[in-house]
Amino acid sequence: EYRGLVKHTGGCHCGAVRFEVWASADLHVFNCNCSICTKKQNRHFIVPASRFKLLKGADNLTTYTFNTHRARHTFCKTCGVQSFYTPRSNPDGYGIAPHCLDDGTVQTIITEDINGKEWEKAVREHKTIRDMSKP
Fold it and tell me: Which residues sit opposite 6 in a β-bridge?
C-alpha cells in the first residue's frame, strides 16, 4: 500500500488486459494535442512504474512506436483499447487512461492541456511532468 493513495483497477474493453495502479483519488490528467494523442483522444495521468501492476493480458498486448520510439503505445490485440502506455516524457513510468479505470475510486479529475505539437518545448517548460514517474 501507498500512503495517501488509492488502488485503482482497470483494463481494456474486452477484459483481456487488466491492471492495478496506486494513485491519488484526485487525478491530474494530461490532454495532449500531439499527432497520436489527438487521433486516439489519449488523455492520461502519469505514475511511477513501481505503482503499476499488470494483472493479466501481457500476451494480449501489442505495441506501436514512431518518431523517437521512446513512447510505447501498448494496446489490446483483441479490442484495440489502450488503457495504459509508456509516455515519452516519463519512460520509467506509465500513462494511465482514466476512462479505463473501474468505477468507484476516482473522486475528481483535473485536466491540463499540454502542447504536444511542440513537445520538446512543452516538456522543457513544464515544471513537474518529468518528475511524475518518480516515486
Answer: 23
Query: Domains (ranges, CATH) in the chain?
Result: 6-128 (2.170.150.70)
For 12-52, what is each residue's pLDDT tens digit? 999 999 999 999 999 999 999 989 989 999 999 999 999 99
Q: Is 127 exposed, middle or buried (0-12, 13-18, 19+ CB in 10 A)?
A: exposed
Distance CA 21, CA 94 (A): 10
Cell of 83: 488503457
Whether the predicted pLDDT of 71 surpasses 90: no
Give the three-state DSSP class for 116: helix
Residue written as grid cell 519512460: 91
Q: Which regions of the chain does DSSP assign to beta strands (E)?
A: 6-11, 18-23, 26-32, 43-48, 52-56, 61-64, 73-76, 84-85, 93-96, 108-114
